[in-house]
Design brief:
This protein is of the alpha/beta class. The chain contains 16 helices and 15 strands. It folds into 4 domains: 147 residues, Resolvase, N-terminal catalytic domain (Rossmann fold), CATH 3.40.50; 116 residues, Alpha-Beta Complex (Hect, E3 ligase catalytic domain fold), CATH 3.90.1750; 106 residues, no CATH class; 58 residues. Strands 1, 2, 3, 4 and 5 form a 5-stranded parallel sheet that branches. The protein has a 3-stranded mixed sheet with strand order 10-14-15. A 3-stranded antiparallel sheet has the order 11-12-13. Helix 6 crosses helix 9 and helix 7 crosses helix 8. The longest helix has 34 residues. The protein is extended.
Length: 477
């Protein structure tokens, strides 16, 4: 008797009779009738809804092909319900069927589309493959057309964004995560970068939509998502990812509730533009500066940035790579002293208010903490009920209660801290200083804070090594 493998895949458009269990039942009947043995370890079943368009996106298919290549061959044939289960792409079908047949001596057999060994069967099989591919392409076009129509009506066509859930085919505000979204926007506008916000969320025990840790890109994705001001965003060509300026993007007015007002949204987008001008490419996810002048000083000859080299000296980056012909080497300490003296002279007759976060309690954070406290109280009630009903022992009840109480104490401490106005935590620098130079000269202030302070004061610094001169371009005056 010959040994067979079974490959089972069901698409979202399949009817009940083509369910995985139904396919397997028919494959077993076919194997028994035709004298095939079907071992359990050679039944390959994809998760429901996986497309058959590309083989590399079907893990069980690729695992089956890998096993089929083993020597000696593990099975003599692969039985499928229909050839369309094996592939809906003619190229994949031809490549893998030919490889299995010629290199492995394994045939692909269809339960419902049986072919003979004559030359006409080759033509019939090619027609079946062409029809399957046509069906797949046509279905994709119909689905895309339907989604396009829904978007034009302001209806959602994708999973809800963080802060929303879906009910009755529409987005509704999720009371558990909506305060987190508002907190992200206000923190960003207040001066925190995407990296700092991600660290804060992870420290609070908040997880992303998929249960993962927050990163720069996940924070940025929320800050760039217009769904929070009542929009529906969809890319007919594929995922948006981080290309927020993709010309294929379609944005329409939705019917769901706004999480962020238009003014807050625009402030966040303006902040991105400011960060981009200061830090290049994607501002907001910047790493902490390693020295105060990092990224601020420009070469007078070519305009390139001066970077620190050999630990204590700064040099034109383009000169170091042979693209600038004028050396701008100077001691970092000496250059910093020149700059601070120039700033002190500029501010000698006036005080300066450095823009930063407003002095406001972190309401969104408090709302989120309150929701977590309510959840812990509900857990406490449930474990008490379980103990009273004899489901849990006294020891189990005490242990669970201890954990819940510890978590509630932690949340209470976080709420108390959030209720205390603390702009230092909301901004990379203290928000109101009339003596900026003393702060910049202080040995107790870190280089990242000094760098952030300098960036608030200055757009750029141009250093002319030949004349030993600096030009300061102020943004805060």
């Amino acid at each position: 008797m010959k040994i067979a493998a079974a490959y089972i895949r069901v698409s979202t458009d399949d009817q009940l009779e083509y369910s995985p269990d139904s396919q397997l039942e028919k494959i077993r009947e076919y194997a028994d009738k035709n004298g095939w043995i079907l071992p359990a370890e050679y039944i390959f079943r994809e998760d429901e809804g996986i497309s058959g368009k590309k083989a590399e996106k079907r893990p069980e298919f690729m695992r089956m092909i890998g096993i089929a290549k083993q020597k000696p061959k593990p099975f003599d044939g692969i039985i499928v319900w229909k050839f369309s289960r094996f592939a809906r792409n003619r190229q994949d079908s031809i490549v893998y069927k030919s490889m299995l047949r010629k290199q492995c001596g394994i045939e692909v057999v269809s339960v419902t589309e049986q072919l003979g060994d004559d030359k006409m069967s080759i033509l019939v099989e090619a027609m079946i493959e062409a029809m399957d591919e046509y069906y797949s392409i046509n279905l994709a076009e119909e689905v895309r057309r339907g989604m396009n129509e829904k978007v034009s009506r302001g209806e959602p066509v994708t999973a809800p964004a963080f802060g929303y859930r879906i009910e009755k085919k529409g987005y509704v505000v999720d009371p558990d995560t909506a305060p987190v979204v508002r907190m992200i926007f206000h923190d960003f506008i207040g001066g925190m970068g995407c990296r700092a916000i991600a660290d804060k969320l992870n420290a609070m025990g908040i997880r992303t939509k998929r249960g993962g840790l927050w990163e720069n890109r996940t924070v940025e994705y929320i800050l760039r998502n217009p769904v929070y001001i009542g929009k529906i965003r969809w890319n007919p060509k594929g995922k948006t990812r981080r290309n927020f300026q993709d010309p294929n993007l379609k944005i329409t007015d939705g019917a769901h509730e706004h999480l962020i007002d238009d003014e807050t949204w625009q402030q966040a987008q303006n902040q991105f533009q400011r960060n981009k001008r200061k830090y290049g490419k994607t501002g907001g996810g910047k790493k902490p500066a390693e020295y105060p002048l990092q990224g601020l000083v420009r070469c007078e000859s070519c305009g390139a940035t001066l970077t620190r080299s050999n630990g204590t000296y700064m040099q034109c980056q383009a000169y170091a790579h042979g693209k600038c012909h004028v050396s701008h080497s100077i001691s970092a300490d000496k250059l910093e002293a020149m700059i601070l003296s120039a700033i002190q002279e500029t501010l000698r007759c006036r005080s300066l208010e450095i823009p930063g976060a407003e002095s406001w309690p972190r309401q969104e954070e408090i709302q989120w903490i309150d929701r977590q406290i309510q959840r812990e109280e509900q857990k406490l009630a449930r474990i008490r009920e379980a103990y009273e009903n004899g489901i849990d022992s006294l020891e189990e009840y005490k242990e669970a209660k201890k954990k819940i109480n510890a978590r509630m104490e932690q949340l209470a401490a976080e709420k108390s801290a959030a209720e205390t106005v603390n702009t230092q935590a909301l901004s990379p620098m203290p928000p109101m200083y009339t003596d900026a130079v003393s702060l910049l000269r202080s040995p107790t202030v870190g280089p990242d804070v000094k760098n952030a302070l300098l960036r608030c004061l200055l757009d750029k610094i141009v250093f002319d090594r030949k004349n030993n001169r600096i030009e300061l371009y102020y943004s805060a005056l």
